[in-house]
Amino acid sequence: MEYIRDHGDDPASIDEISQRGYGDILCIETGGPTPGLGCAGRGIIATFNLLEDLELFETVKPDVVMYDVLGDVVCGGFAAPIREGYAEHVLIVTSGEKMALYAANNICCAVENFADRGYADVAGIILNRRNTPDEEEKVRAFAEEKGLSIVGDIPRCDDINRFEDMGKTVIEGDPQLPISRTFTELAERLLQLDR
Known about the structure:
Elements: H1 2-7, E1 19-20, E2 26-27, H2 40-53, H3 56-60, H4 80-83, E3 89-94, H5 98-113, E4 121-128, H6 135-146, E5 150-154, H7 158-165, H8 170-173, H9 178-191
Parallel strand pairs: 3-4, 4-5
Antiparallel strand pairs: 1-2
């Protein structure tokens, strides 16, 4: 969004709006409007339009595409990856906190609203632990109510913050750590979704 504000709607290349991360992963941060002066959901829609114009998927030919989108699906912009057919599967990342489960339920409702159109499905829940009381029980009860499985369980871990402060993922920082192996195993499990 900053690039578009500074240079208009026509960037010269994908390289001008992206960064290459660890493992040669192409990363694009949508950004958003100036705080208090616009609609972040509109920014997401503008980003998808831009990626289409740049023919990103045809040019880069990625193996896997992941979108990290806020759970505020009351805004149609945040549901754009689902509604516009960019996503095949939705994974809900939640803790056992009440507001996180509320957002998780909103995501389920949004996907259900599009169910008759053949868009993305909810492939499961990733429990991102915050160590709240009865957290696992609350998330399991929610998953059971929605007919979903918990496909990943991320423990609260100081190593995540430590490497984040260094600008690294835990896998980049130390692939042998238990938390790194947790993420690697989750990635391997998710790659099986379409196989």
